[in-house]
Amino acid sequence: MARLDVTETFHGITYPGHLHTQDTFQYAMDFKFQDTDTLIVTYPKSGTTWMQEMVTLVSSKGNPVRAQTQPNWLRAPWLEQYYCPDVLKVSQGPRLLTTHLPYQLLATALQGSKAKVIYVARNPKDVVVSYYHFHKMANFLPNPGTFSEFLNAFMEGTVHYGSWFDHVKGWTSNAGNIHNFLYITYEDMSEDLHGSLERVSSFLQCPLAEEELTSAERCCSFSSMRDNSMVNYTLVPEDIMDHSKGKFMRKGKTGDWMSNFSEEQSRSFDKVFASEMCESSLEFVWKNPEETSLKSRTDTEPLPHHAA
Ligand code: A3P
Known about the structure:
Order of helices and strands: EEHEHHHHEHEHHHEHHHHHEE
CATH superfamily: P-loop containing nucleotide triphosphate hydrolases
Helix content: 40-55%
Number of strands: 8
Bound molecules: adenosine-3'-5'-diphosphate
Structural class: alpha/beta
């Protein structure tokens, strides 16, 4: 694990060096997408693993065997991580890929492709809390310092994987350039997992019978995933993820930011959000004083090429 404390910088964004090199970024940028590919795109801690499980279960028509026997990084490798080419060499059937890369790095590779792109966004206040706790257990990420320090770095966009704001804006504002694009939020999945699975199945043109959907829903619940070693990262050695310092499947809730942010931190964040997102087609929807969600401006006005 010689590279655990190494940071790799690419196009101004820092990444963990044990998973990425300049060559692996180049591989992602030069990737030849096939029309049958599905690409899950997220900023870290936005529900990546959850969507990997949902797509796996939709593709298997609710049959849990694959989800319970193959680790998520083999089912849906991250395009930019070093092991991706080896995984793809031996994979069978339509390919499921994952990426945390910003849009501009994959724009050329995706151009003209009919690959299906699923973008999952999450309330950034919950993202930063989840990411902070993840830094404590993930030895390949820098020491996050205090929550306040980490929050400032997150708002400035200097954390690993770059600015959340740029990531979300980059992908959603270019949705019209992507042939098949589905935008969905962690909050949608949390509020209505069944309906979210239906959206994914319709987007993937993979219809499921009611009992298959119910089986998929059961496997994608927080408690099932928390106990499934193929997705809860307990297979990852202690020197990479220190499970005594936290769990990957931590809380799985919306609105957890409220027990972590001070009022002042929340106000500062809202200001940064307002200024960063003022030209975006996304906005916070305050469902009730206790909860926020990030949705497209109106339910009837989907993002361009919003295929489901
Ligand atoms: P918390 O740290 O808030 O609990 P990612 O996979 O992008 O790294 O995101 C991890 C976050 O998604 C964690 O959030 C994790 O608990 C949550 N998550 C994963 N599976 C989930 C599920 N089935 N239901 C709800 N949340 C889930």
